[in-house]
Amino acid sequence: MYNIFMENKTQVIVVGGGIAGISAAITVARAGKEVVLIERGSFCGSKNVFGGAIYTRAVKELFPDFEKSAPLERNNIKHQYMLLTQTDATTISHLKKENKSNSYTVIRGKFDRWLAEQAKREGVTIVTETVVEDLIIEDKKIVGIKTELEDYYADIVILADGVNSLLAKKIGLRKDLKPQDVALGVKEVIKISEEKINERFNINTDEGCITEIVGYPMNEMLGLGYIYTNKNSVTIGLGVALDELSEKQLKPYELLDKLKTHPSIEELIKDGELIEYSAHLIPEGGYNKIPKLYDNGVMVIGDAAMLVNNLHWEGTNLAMLSGKYAGETAVEALNKNDFSTDCLKAYKQKLEDSFIMKDLRSYKNLMPSMHKRRKSFTGYYIEKINSFFEMFTSVDGIVKRNKFRNFIKTIFTDRKISELVKDGITGIKLLWEILK
Amino acid sequence: MSINDKLFKVKYVSDNVSHLTPDHEKCKNCIRKTCTFICPAQVWEWDDEKNTLTVNYENCLECGACRVACDMQCIDWKYPKGNKGVTFKQG
Ligand SMILES: Cc1cc2nc3c(=O)[nH]c(=O)nc-3n(C[C@H](O)[C@H](O)[C@H](O)COP(=O)(O)OP(=O)(O)OC[C@H]3O[C@@H](n4cnc5c(N)ncnc54)[C@H](O)[C@@H]3O)c2cc1C
Ligand code: SF4
Ligand code: SF4
């Protein structure tokens, strides 16, 4: 195997051993090229946090047989949305029993490690416990990296250093993050027995349930809560736009505690034991915040390139595929011995041709519009839906027709009609953007 | 459960120097002190008596929120050295 410590020069260096970095590195190694992946944690996955689900289709692009040997928790067959007010909950649930669904819950500490093992087996040299501190630039081209101990050189450097990407910022590919560009996610993994999970979520062993939570305690903020089921634990967490937490001066773990003590949520996690608490940023800027994706000798992938579709909680699939495309582009560049932007622009083209850029473009106005109308979408309507069900299901001797009429009347009298119209227009506009 | 109890469950190898360095002069003039509430690990605490910011860097979860949200954009924020800092077993 190529020994980085002897010559200090290789063909490709990948910075960051998350899902994006490993995908890029393995793609390069499979083409028979030399690749070194550098990860700052003590093992791949040791610094990484996510909600819970990886998407079968994306993983299969790189690991067609992963279901046979990857450490998977549960196959998500049930998807539920909970609309919460402080006391009430309205739940919409979708179940798909026959076919295997398109996602699995995983534990990143195990899954990223498994990915790294596959990469090693296929020829990637993995160096852990090493922070890349800077990039080496010669004649306007990235030619290597600096670590605490040494400088290493490469024909191409791929940056997969995650949402904070200090390196992409350093070389001017990306502007520094602003609070409105990210959400802060905090989560807890809580140990609960398999039987109890099955019973509480009404699923069988190996079947998983994804719960997305809107409303309380994130009322009127851009934020989403979630519960994922693992084999013997559940993950509960929330992500809230950083600018809103800052504006409202809220402590993220206190919000999470509020969610955990909501009567409908408490039931799902009671008698559980906390195994781990963690936090991580999520890129929220969408299409408008995608940085310059390449320059002479360098490409940026995954969260470092802000490639996340936040409405659908898709990040790992974009990380994987962007890694694959950058890996393929690196191989083409090595074959042509051309590491300039002329050659590396193929990476951007591959992203453009895939669903990644198409989807992100469709949602490009989503965050700005949601931001403007968040008070109604995450506050007012959630309250209204819950009070509708309360009204609809109550047995109180009042003539039903009168109750319904009164309810409908309140929709027009609670708030100004103009607000209602604005919400409607925003809704239609968004739908149009997605469908057009 | 208090935040300290939560952090007690997290695995750390701590360094003897901080990877987080605010510009203490700027902090003295900072009115909102966003770091003191936005941090998910309560790393930043304002010490009224000493009129200074205490940085419990050993508890840092390495998320980056303080760096992005700091009112004065004055935190020199680095990753801990390769073998130091937090290790998530679950993630
Ligand atoms: C709370 C939360 C919930 C989420 N839920 C989901 C979900 O359910 N499904 C989904 O698909 N996506 C989800 N995502 C998004 C998803 O986790 C990310 O998009 C994905 O992990 C990005 O992978 P990455 O490889 O680009 O970055 P990361 O996984 O962050 O990896 C970056 C790696 O680079 C290393 N690194 C950074 N800097 C350096 C350096 N200077 N030197 C050496 N190494 C370095 C880090 O240690 C890390 O290993 C969620 C994210 C969060 C935060
Ligand atoms: S927000 Fe920034 S400037 Fe203000 S106290 Fe915290 S570190 Fe100092
Ligand atoms: S990086 Fe995150 S956990 Fe660490 S001090 Fe900053 S806000 Fe707190």
Q: How would you sum up this structure, described in words?
A:
The complex is a heterodimer of chains A (436) and B (91). Chain A has 436 residues and is an alpha/beta fold. Chain A has 3 domains: 210 residues, FAD/NAD(P)-binding domain; 104 residues, D-Amino Acid Oxidase, Chain A, domain 2, CATH 3.30.9.90; 70 residues, no CATH class. In chain A, a hairpin with a 3-residue loop joins strand 9 and strand 10. The longest helix of chain A has 28 residues. Chain B is an alpha+beta fold. Chain B has one domain: Alpha-Beta Plaits (2-Layer Sandwich). Helices cover 22% and strands 22% of the residues of chain B. Chain B has 4 helices and 6 strands. In chain B, strands 1-6 form a two-stranded antiparallel sheet. The mean pLDDT of chain B is 96. Classes of the chains: A alpha/beta (436), B alpha+beta (91). Chains A and B meet through helix 5, strand 11, helix 8, helix 9 and strand 15 of A and helix 1, helix 4 and strand 6 of B. One iron/sulfur cluster binds next to helix 4 of chain B.
Structural class of chain B: alpha+beta
Span between N and C termini of chain A?
A: 51 Å
Characterize the biggest β-sheet of chain B.
2 strands, antiparallel
State the CATH superfamily name of the largest domain in chain A.
FAD/NAD(P)-binding domain
